[in-house]
Amino acid sequence: MNLSNSSETSNREPSERNLSKLCVHTITTKPWPIEEAARRFSASGIGGITVWRDALAGRDIRQTGQLLRDQNLSIVSLCRGGFFPHTEAAGRQVAIDDNKRAVDEAFALGAPLIVLVCGADPGQSLSESRKQIQDGIAAVLPHAEAAGVKLAIEPLHPMYADSRSAINTLYQANDMAEALHSPWVGVAVDVYHLWWDPTLEREITRCGKNGNLFAFHICDWKTPTTDFLNDRGLMGEGCINIRQIRGWVEATGFTGFSEVEIFSNRYWSEDQALFLEKIKHGYLHHS
Amino acid sequence: MNLSNSSETSNREPSERNLSKLCVHTITTKPWPIEEAARRFSASGIGGITVWRDALAGRDIRQTGQLLRDQNLSIVSLCRGGFFPHTEAAGRQVAIDDNKRAVDEAFALGAPLIVLVCGADPGQSLSESRKQIQDGIAAVLPHAEAAGVKLAIEPLHPMYADSRSAINTLYQANDMAEALHSPWVGVAVDVYHLWWDPTLEREITRCGKNGNLFAFHICDWKTPTTDFLNDRGLMGEGCINIRQIRGWVEATGFTGFSEVEIFSNRYWSEDQALFLEKIKHGYLHHS
């Protein structure tokens, strides 16, 4: 793969859009260490990077943040905090402490936002988990505010309601963000989790109107999908009308990044440089 | 497995509930031909059977219905009609014709109800699929009414929105049933599809109040779930509070069957007589 050619190609892209508002999650190209991902993204003209905490393992977080900025990458967010619910109070405290560490990491990295996968415990009711999520965010909030780091509640697809998130619709996320009523708490909209919801346009409008639309994640839903976690599709290979949803998001005044977050055993097993080309094409032509 | 012993055991069940309002779907014990399923269910004191169309293959449907009634089984419903959406009009007409055949089969069997898995086509928008579903049901309705067969819209979990059903919440199913405004069109509530929905209690109340609560299906959601279709859990081995949801259903005045509908590669590979004992136990103690 000739990177400078690849970069020239993207610079000659005929579309009216360029890649300056494209952000790629480190987990999307998981086989690459963050340093290589940053070089490759930057060489492609991609404007942003969202950092997963596992990508920071064994590194000086402050220096890694500087390395990303030196590559002209905007650090869009840190993934992920959350997982607040537990049947035991001690477990909930562990989660709160871990979320405070995530805030510290985001501050060190220079990430303005943490995405929250809020959690759920199958050993208790969804309503109890939902209450614990709100209490957990409230407990972390002063620390986040002091660090200048925002928190985004990400509603997850209902197929994750048992153990990953009891927040499963944008309606719920909006309700919770509004209840917490802080400029430091908002919502992350991910098309994979929300595309099926007949109230999506209305809830995106509400989210934007209340100043809570903090992040926009894209990928696609394949038919068939064969794995609950790691079979997400590239934009254009599934049934999600990403462009329509982006239109709703941008109609609220959102000018942030489109963040490509793809977990895929299939793509992780491919040549990542070729995969990155596909991501750029999918972003330009199918989102 | 000694069936008469098994039957005596269930008759001595200490619970205040008996099995007269338990219905089992033929697909739940798929390895059994319908004749054997009927004998086994009946010998166990189970009151109802829901028949999947594949179980009728190669049989005289009228005679099979009589065979079920001779075993003192109530024929609760026929599964399944639906799959109305297609990008091509010809495909939609094929679906309508097939649904009319399902009505004829239900009439011949003596089943008062057909459950509709409404369908979705990933090649078109969800809103288009939803419109085609409503149009399809409207097209079948006169035939169903003439045959005295009711139609139940079954909202399916959002993880099936791409290709199995564009009706993914009870709110949508209620809306559609109310729009079709016929005593022959109602809704099937399945805990597997709907348990995660924070509006579930309200929508069950609405469904019952409008006379649209036609059927109640139970099983459980396992953590982890490893297959999108065939890894449903037995009542009690997952995180769904089935008893709470049954309470909401019965609070509407519903006095129908709890129908056990479990697709499970694991259980289908087990001894079905032992599995039936587990079903009875799960029904009595975890629903």
Automatic annotation (TrEMBL), chains A, B:
Keywords noted in UniProt: Isomerase
S-adenosyl-L-methionine among keywords: no
Domain Xylose isomerase-like TIM barrel residue range list: 43-277
PANTHER family attached to this UniProt entry: HYDROXYPYRUVATE ISOMERASE (PTHR12110), XYLOSE ISOMERASE (PTHR12110:SF52)
MF (Gene Ontology): isomerase activity
Organism of derivation: Spirosoma liriopis
Name of this chain's protein: Sugar phosphate isomerase/epimerase
A Pfam family it matches: AP_endonuc_2
Source species, domain of life: Bacteria
Lineage: Bacteria, Pseudomonadati, Bacteroidota, Cytophagia, Cytophagales
